[in-house]
Every structure is written in structure tokens, then in C-alpha cells.
Design a protein that fits this description.
The chain is mainly α and 130 residues long. The protein has two domains: 13-83, Winged helix-like DNA-binding domain superfamily/Winged helix DNA-binding domain (Arc Repressor Mutant, subunit A); 88-122, no CATH class. The protein has helices spanning 13-26, 39-46, 50-62, 80-83, 88-105, 110-122; strands at 35-36, 66-68, 74-76. A three-stranded antiparallel sheet has the order 1-3-2. Helix 1 (13-26) crosses helix 3. The longest helix has 18 residues, at 88-105.
Length: 130
Amino acid sequence: MEILIDTDSAEPIFGQLISQIKQLINSDAIQPGFQLPSIRQLATDLGINQNTVAKAYKLLERDAVIVSKGYRGTFIHPQAKQNCLVDHSQQARLLLSQTIGQLRELGLTDSEIRLQFAELLKDRTLVEPV
């Protein structure tokens, strides 16, 4: 199981963990019943705070993507693939947040950003990403 953290990303680290674990599940790289590293181990491996991993695990467990079995460990939930179907509104919000941040870094004002989005939304010929 390979997880990479981008410290330069606008996405919080716990969000990156959640996204990547869900991506691993959706791509069948990890299967139901797969044992995840302990909070301490994953935090050490990634060089991040244990509370960050704990938060990601807590949110994944809330969504029934993983299941904690006490001292035996944390495992991929039997219905994880169905339970981690992409929340499009959350994903859209994240993508827009990142894009707006990048546009602001380029020096665009919020008014200019709104204008660009409005023009793009009118354009019905936009090509969907592959």
C-alpha cells in the first residue's frame, strides 16, 4: 500500500490520506479485509502526526470504509467499495478550492475568478477530462 503526502498541497493531510485510501480501494489495490497499518505505524512511515492519521481513520470508519477491531487492528470494511463511492459535491468543492487558491496565487482577483467561471459554465463545448 503506497500513500504519498504532498505537503505543498492545499488539501489537508488527513484529506489526502482519505482520498488515497479510497482510491486504493476503488482501484482494487486493496481488498475488503486488508489490514491497514496502525495509526502509529502509518504516522511514522509518512512522517506526520498520529492525530492526523487518527482523524483520517475516524472519518473513514464513520463512512464505513474501514472498521476498527480494537487491538486486532484496522481493516478495510467488507462493503468498502460501495461505501466509498465518490462524494461528488465534496470532491468538486476540493477541486474548486485548489483551483481558486492557484488563481489567487497568479494574482487574479475574486471578481476576475468569478467572471472566468461564469464564462466557462456558459460554454457547453467543454471537453471532459480523460
